[in-house]
Design a protein that fits this description.
By secondary structure, this protein is an alpha/beta fold. Helix content is about 35%, strand content about 15%. It is built from 14 helices and ten strands. It has a ten-stranded mixed sheet with strand order 7-6-5-4-3-2-1-8-9-10. The N terminus is likely disordered.
């Protein structure tokens, strides 16, 4: 793979951030923190944006976050929450594959985070895993420390094993399914936070969704494969005819929305409905809500979203570190600040589009174009617009059918 090095400016200048602060902009404090406990993985997924992207910085990261780094991170999280009067926050133990850090490290991290936050803060701990190492001991440990568990699964055996394989080429579906059965059918069912699935156009959307439903997830999160204008997602020709990802998600929407009972939350579709009805989203995939999460690498450096690695080498880096920098300093990094400015942070063409309050310009990483950085519409622009319009029309028709005639109307 040829690694791309960045030449053009991607973020606003620091002077732009300072000018906005003088004009009255106040950064929204962080309420979610992603801790990279381990920088390696025991799968070699073919679409992985961490290990198969333009940024290969993971190679220089320590494999495991040191105890001193964990402790300093816990102190920084507590400092940020106390400084902004926040009484609730979430911390996701992540990787790589976080279970590779070992049971002792995960338990110690949970204790350090809760001790630093103190009794007055509700700290929601979660762990995102590929599921191949889930067993009874791990689930007992997560129950002991109040850690919820999310699992990555792409559907049935064919869908899962197409991409989510080990370095030896062996599929992971059987191992992940065994771990999921322990999680969902045993005494620790309450720990299950949901499934994360990457969309593959080769998979039948309804069959994929129903394969996920078989595990009775409280939530399903469909992720569009990472891509941008320089490296388009699989099966997408930017500017060409067709909206294949909208078509795929629309089929899921009709199956999910048309079910006689609510079978699960689908976070992307729930966010879309909420935005169309005037509410707020839970994620940054849609809408204009400010980004409010941070990533801490295994060496303690503060980073932006991992998905930015798909743009160019160093795209997620900020130059900040928990040993010397607060999370407030991260909020003023131009890359973070630009994602807190709402419509003002969008490209001019996006601001002129009537759909931008709902699509939000799309995920930030998907806007990258060599030569102009992130000041663009999403490479998924046509697909997002198509999906938003279809869902809006469906909901509008349902609301019209439910409309109560005015008093005295025939």
């Amino acid at each position: 793979m040829t690694r791309l090095r960045h030449a053009e400016p991607s973020w606003p200048a620091a002077a732009d951030v300072e000018a906005r602060e003088r004009a009255g902009w106040v950064p929204a404090p962080l309420h979610s923190f992603v801790l990279k406990l381990h920088s390696r993985c025991d799968l070699a997924c073919r679409y992985c944006y961490m290990y198969r992207s333009n940024d290969q910085g993971w190679r220089t990261q320590p494999r495991t976050m040191a105890d001193a780094t964990v402790d300093r991170t816990a102190e920084r999280v507590a400092e940020h929450l106390a400084g902004h009067g926040l009484r609730r926050a979430s911390v996701v133990l992540h990787g790589g594959e976080p279970l590779l850090a070992g049971e002792a490290a995960v338990a110690r991290t949970a204790r350090a985070l809760r001790a630093a936050a103190g009794d007055g803060v509700r700290l929601d701990l979660a762990l995102q895993t590929n599921g191949v190492r889930l067993n009874g001991r791990w689930l007992d440990l997560c129950a002991e420390h109040g850690i919820r568990v999310g699992v990555s699964l792409d559907g049935d055996r064919v869908a899962q094993d197409r991409h989510r394989r080990g370095a030896d080429g062996r599929g992971s579906h059987a191992r992940v399914s065994a771990g999921l059965r322990l999680l969902t059918d045993g005494p620790h069912r309450a720990l299950f936070s949901g499934l994360l699935c990457t969309v593959d156009l080769r998979n039948d959307p309804v069959r994929c969704y129903e394969a996920l439903l078989a595990h009775r997830p409280p939530s399903v999160d469909f992720l569009l494969p990472q891509g941008n204008w320089g490296t388009p997602p699989p099966g997408l020709r930017p500017g060409g005819p067709g909206t294949p990802y909208a078509d795929w998600l629309w089929a899921v929407f009709e199956r999910w929305y048309g079910a006689p009972v609510r079978e699960t939350r689908v976070r992307l579709l729930d966010d879309l409905l909420s935005l169309l009805l005037g509410g707020a989203p839970e994620t940054e995939a849609l809408g204009l809500a400010p980004v409010r999460y941070a990533v801490v690498e295994t060496d303690g450096s503060l980073a932006q979203d991992d998905t930015l690695r798909t743009a160019y080498e160093g795209a997620a880096a900020t130059g900040l570190h928990v040993s010397r920098d607060s999370f407030d300093a991260l909020l003023r990094h131009p890359g973070i600040a630009a994602r807190q400015w709402g419509a003002a942070g969008l490209a001019a063409g996006c601001r002129a589009c009537r759909l931008h309050p709902v699509c939000g310009g799309g995920h930030y990483a998907n806007r990258y174009r060599p030569g102009t950085g992130f000041a663009n519409a999403s490479v998924y622009c046509a697909d997002l617009a198509s999906l938003v319009r279809r869902v809006r029309e469906r909901v509008a028709a349902d609301l019209e059918r439910l409309r109560v005639p005015a008093a005295g109307a025939a």
